[in-house]
Amino acid sequence: MQNPEVFILAIESSCDDTAAAVLHNDKVLSNVVANQLIHNQYGGVVPELASRAHQQNIVPVIDAALRKANVQKEQLSAIAFTQGPGLMGSLLVGSSFSKSLSLALQIPLIAVNHMHAHILAHFIDEEGYDKPEFPFLALTISGGHTQIVKVNSFFDMEIIGETTDDAVGEAFDKSAKILGLPYPGGPLIDKYAQLGNPKAFVFTKPKVPGLDFSFSGLKTAILYFIQKKKQENPNFIEENLNDICASIQYTIIEILIDKLKLAVQQTGIKQIAIGGGVSANSGIRTRLKENPYGWKTYIPKFEYTTDNAAMIGIVGYQKYLSNTFETASVVSKARIQF
């Protein structure tokens, strides 16, 4: 029987978003995110600037999350934080604050794997959203990760396919950079792709055995294609931007879908859940919703796709129920075993 009064304060600081959430059992009471716009001018996240911004943001963000949830810190049952993977300086800000607060309040401390959280975000109690049943296949797609994971239970997960080079989010952002689009470019490719013809230009899909992915060859093919076309017509990008973006996005989605088909064939599991920042992409969401393959697909609420603390909180809640706690000696890890 579930404890009706479990309140989890969750803190996420793995990259450049400072986030805090308060959950009552598996229901989100607040989910606050402070973005760091300073990185846009550098074309990517600058780790030192990210950790400094976390230090500035963490207290106001946690305060806002508690106020919005109408929960006093004395009511909290536990503190959950992102242990890794991520930028070390950013992770340390979140873990240090979490350790201090758990000691001050004398409540348990819970360490969360960021990638587990992207997958288990589907178990947040949200009206209109079904929860997958075990076992299911999770496609985690973000700026740093591209994985197919066989999920047997809350804490029994096995990576059965992953990228051998660039992650899918990198493929989007680097393609955008080739086109002269500002950082972050992935959402802009999605925006322009909705106005273009996805079959205007053909890019060869990389041949990678098994369930693994590779995107570096596709990125190189796009670079050479653009260089060649610009030599023929200096205005090629401007005149064809929507079609170029649509064709790039179509190719990337086809790569993902092909591997999912193979994973379903190999495992016999027809439940597919997506997670991670790139699962916010409208083309991927539309393709999975169309679902001509007989799969049962789970697409998270938009606000739970990008880095957020609600997903950290739902893992924290499950760990709380199983009494999986940490001491203050727990260490943050830029790379963490899945």
From TrEMBL:
Coiled coil: none annotated. Fe cation binds at H114, H118, D307. InterPro entries: ATPase_NBD, Gcp-like_dom, KAE1/TsaD, Peptidase_M22_CS, TsaD. The keyword Manganese does not apply. Its EC number is 2.3.1.234. GO terms for molecular function: iron ion binding; tRNA N(6)-L-threonylcarbamoyladenine synthase activity. Binds 1 Fe(2+) ion per subunit. Its main location: cytoplasm. Residues 27-313 form the Gcp-like domain. One of its GO terms (cellular component) is cytoplasm. It comes from the Bacteria. Its cofactor is Fe(2+). GO terms for biological process: tRNA threonylcarbamoyladenosine modification. PROSITE patterns: GLYCOPROTEASE. It catalyses: L-threonylcarbamoyladenylate + adenosine(37) in tRNA = N(6)-L-threonylcarbamoyladenosine(37) in tRNA + AMP + H(+). Substrate binds at T140, I141, S142, G143, G144, D173, G186, D190, N281. It is found in: Cytoplasm. Signal peptide: none annotated. Keywords: Acyltransferase, Cytoplasm, Iron, Metal-binding, Transferase, tRNA processing. PANTHER family: TRNA N6-ADENOSINE THREONYLCARBAMOYLTRANSFERASE (PTHR11735), TRNA N6-ADENOSINE THREONYLCARBAMOYLTRANSFERASE, MITOCHONDRIAL (PTHR11735:SF6). HAMAP family: TsaD. Required for the formation of a threonylcarbamoyl group on adenosine at position 37 (t(6)A37) in tRNAs that read codons beginning with adenine. Is involved in the transfer of the threonylcarbamoyl moiety of threonylcarbamoyl-AMP (TC-AMP) to the N6 group of A37, together with TsaE and TsaB. TsaD likely plays a direct catalytic role in this reaction. Belongs to the KAE1 / TsaD family. This is tRNA N6-adenosine threonylcarbamoyltransferase. It comes from Flavobacterium geliluteum. The lineage of its organism: Bacteria, Pseudomonadati, Bacteroidota, Flavobacteriia, Flavobacteriales. The gene is tsaD.
